Amino acid sequence: MELVLSQNETAKKAHKILFSFSDPSYLLFNENVIDSILSSADTNIKKLHLTLGWENILKVALWTKERPLIHEVLSFIEKSGSTEDELMIFRKSDFHDIFPWLYYGKRFDVLRKICNAAKARTETKIAKNITVYCHLFSEETEKIVASSL
Q1: Is residue 47 part of a domain?
Q2: What is the pTM of this model?
Q3: Cα separation values, 122 from 55, 134, 140, Å
Q4: 76 pairs with which residues across the strands?
Q5: What is the span of the domain harbouring residue 52?
Q6: 70-79, Cβ contacts within 8 angstroms, sequence gap of 24 or more
Q7: How far is CA 73 from CA 13, 56, 77, 87, 144, in A?
Q8: Is residue 141 part of a domain?
Q9: Residue 118 belongs to some domain of the structure
Q10: Residue 121 and residue 132: Cα distance in Å, rounded?
Q11: Is residue 96 part of a domain?
Q12: pLDDT above 70: percentage of residues in the chain
Protein backbone atom coordinates (compact mmCIF):
# COMPACT_ATOMS: atom_id res chain seq x y z
CA MET A 1 0.00 0.00 0.00
CA GLU A 2 1.16 3.51 -0.84
CA LEU A 3 0.23 6.56 1.22
CA VAL A 4 0.69 10.23 0.39
CA LEU A 5 0.91 12.50 3.40
CA SER A 6 0.27 16.09 2.31
CA GLN A 7 0.25 19.23 4.39
CA ASN A 8 -2.80 20.72 2.65
CA GLU A 9 -5.07 20.52 -0.39
CA THR A 10 -2.62 22.48 -2.54
CA ALA A 11 0.12 19.95 -1.83
CA LYS A 12 -2.26 17.08 -2.50
CA LYS A 13 -3.26 18.55 -5.88
CA ALA A 14 0.38 19.16 -6.82
CA HIS A 15 1.19 15.51 -6.10
CA LYS A 16 -1.93 14.19 -7.81
CA ILE A 17 -1.10 16.08 -11.04
CA LEU A 18 2.23 14.26 -11.27
CA PHE A 19 1.36 10.84 -9.86
CA SER A 20 -2.41 10.35 -10.35
CA PHE A 21 -2.96 8.27 -7.22
CA SER A 22 -6.54 7.53 -6.18
CA ASP A 23 -8.13 9.70 -3.48
CA PRO A 24 -7.92 7.06 -0.70
CA SER A 25 -4.12 7.17 -1.03
CA TYR A 26 -4.03 10.78 0.20
CA LEU A 27 -4.05 11.92 3.79
CA LEU A 28 -3.90 15.53 4.92
CA PHE A 29 -2.40 16.22 8.31
CA ASN A 30 -3.50 18.87 10.77
CA GLU A 31 -1.09 18.08 13.55
CA ASN A 32 2.68 18.24 13.53
CA VAL A 33 4.37 16.66 10.51
CA ILE A 34 6.65 14.51 12.65
CA ASP A 35 3.72 13.06 14.61
CA SER A 36 1.84 12.46 11.36
CA ILE A 37 4.77 10.58 9.86
CA LEU A 38 5.15 8.41 12.95
CA SER A 39 1.40 7.65 12.98
CA SER A 40 1.45 6.79 9.28
CA ALA A 41 4.40 4.46 9.77
CA ASP A 42 2.31 2.39 12.19
CA THR A 43 0.04 1.31 9.32
CA ASN A 44 0.71 -1.41 6.74
CA ILE A 45 2.18 0.88 4.10
CA LYS A 46 5.16 -0.01 1.95
CA LYS A 47 5.73 3.43 0.42
CA LEU A 48 5.19 6.85 1.96
CA HIS A 49 5.18 10.04 -0.08
CA LEU A 50 5.58 13.32 1.80
CA THR A 51 4.38 16.39 -0.09
CA LEU A 52 5.48 19.33 2.01
CA GLY A 53 6.14 23.03 1.84
CA TRP A 54 9.39 24.69 2.85
CA GLU A 55 8.89 24.82 6.62
CA ASN A 56 7.66 21.25 6.92
CA ILE A 57 10.37 19.77 4.71
CA LEU A 58 12.93 21.50 6.93
CA LYS A 59 11.22 20.13 10.05
CA VAL A 60 11.49 16.63 8.61
CA ALA A 61 15.08 17.04 7.42
CA LEU A 62 16.08 18.41 10.83
CA TRP A 63 13.60 16.05 12.57
CA THR A 64 12.08 18.65 14.83
CA LYS A 65 8.49 19.39 15.83
CA GLU A 66 9.37 23.00 16.50
CA ARG A 67 9.78 25.85 14.05
CA PRO A 68 13.34 25.52 12.68
CA LEU A 69 15.87 28.03 13.95
CA ILE A 70 17.68 30.13 11.36
CA HIS A 71 21.16 28.97 12.42
CA GLU A 72 20.09 25.30 12.09
CA VAL A 73 18.65 25.94 8.63
CA LEU A 74 21.71 27.86 7.46
CA SER A 75 24.05 25.15 8.71
CA PHE A 76 21.96 22.48 7.01
CA ILE A 77 21.81 24.38 3.71
CA GLU A 78 25.54 25.01 3.83
CA LYS A 79 26.05 21.23 4.11
CA SER A 80 23.69 20.84 1.13
CA GLY A 81 25.84 22.88 -1.22
CA SER A 82 25.64 26.61 -0.50
CA THR A 83 28.63 28.50 0.84
CA GLU A 84 28.86 30.39 4.10
CA ASP A 85 29.48 33.60 2.14
CA GLU A 86 26.30 33.08 0.09
CA LEU A 87 24.26 32.51 3.21
CA MET A 88 25.70 35.42 5.21
CA ILE A 89 22.86 37.73 4.10
CA PHE A 90 20.32 35.42 5.79
CA ARG A 91 21.93 35.34 9.25
CA LYS A 92 19.32 37.75 10.66
CA SER A 93 16.46 36.74 8.37
CA ASP A 94 13.54 34.43 8.73
CA PHE A 95 14.26 31.00 7.25
CA HIS A 96 11.31 31.49 4.88
CA ASP A 97 13.41 34.11 3.04
CA ILE A 98 15.83 31.40 1.89
CA PHE A 99 13.41 29.38 -0.24
CA PRO A 100 12.79 32.10 -2.89
CA TRP A 101 16.54 32.68 -3.12
CA LEU A 102 17.12 28.97 -3.79
CA TYR A 103 14.12 28.52 -6.07
CA TYR A 104 14.46 31.64 -8.25
CA GLY A 105 18.24 31.27 -8.17
CA LYS A 106 17.71 27.84 -9.76
CA ARG A 107 19.55 26.08 -6.93
CA PHE A 108 17.57 22.90 -7.55
CA ASP A 109 20.61 20.84 -6.57
CA VAL A 110 20.31 22.21 -3.02
CA LEU A 111 16.53 21.74 -2.96
CA ARG A 112 16.93 18.10 -4.08
CA LYS A 113 19.55 17.50 -1.38
CA ILE A 114 17.12 18.83 1.21
CA CYS A 115 14.44 16.43 -0.09
CA ASN A 116 16.94 13.55 0.02
CA ALA A 117 17.96 14.49 3.57
CA ALA A 118 14.30 14.51 4.64
CA LYS A 119 13.82 11.11 2.99
CA ALA A 120 16.88 9.62 4.70
CA ARG A 121 15.99 11.10 8.09
CA THR A 122 12.42 9.76 7.87
CA GLU A 123 13.52 6.28 6.84
CA THR A 124 15.98 6.20 9.73
CA LYS A 125 13.49 7.48 12.32
CA ILE A 126 10.59 5.21 11.40
CA ALA A 127 12.92 2.19 11.42
CA LYS A 128 10.61 0.08 9.29
CA ASN A 129 10.88 -1.31 5.81
CA ILE A 130 9.04 1.66 4.28
CA THR A 131 10.35 3.48 1.23
CA VAL A 132 9.94 7.24 1.63
CA TYR A 133 9.73 9.85 -1.11
CA CYS A 134 9.89 13.52 -0.22
CA HIS A 135 8.47 16.19 -2.49
CA LEU A 136 8.90 19.92 -1.91
CA PHE A 137 6.07 22.02 -3.24
CA SER A 138 5.69 25.76 -3.59
CA GLU A 139 2.51 27.47 -2.41
CA GLU A 140 3.25 30.25 -4.88
CA THR A 141 3.48 28.07 -7.99
CA GLU A 142 1.25 25.28 -6.59
CA LYS A 143 3.71 22.75 -8.02
CA ILE A 144 6.28 20.29 -6.76
CA VAL A 145 9.62 22.01 -7.32
CA ALA A 146 12.04 19.36 -6.02
CA SER A 147 11.90 15.71 -5.04
CA SER A 148 13.96 12.87 -3.64
CA LEU A 149 13.11 10.77 -6.72
Answers
A1: yes
A2: 0.91
A3: 16, 9, 26
A4: none
A5: 2-65+108-147
A6: 70/94, 70/95, 73/98, 74/98, 76/114, 76/117, 77/102, 77/110, 77/114
A7: 27, 12, 6, 10, 21
A8: yes
A9: yes
A10: 10
A11: no
A12: 100
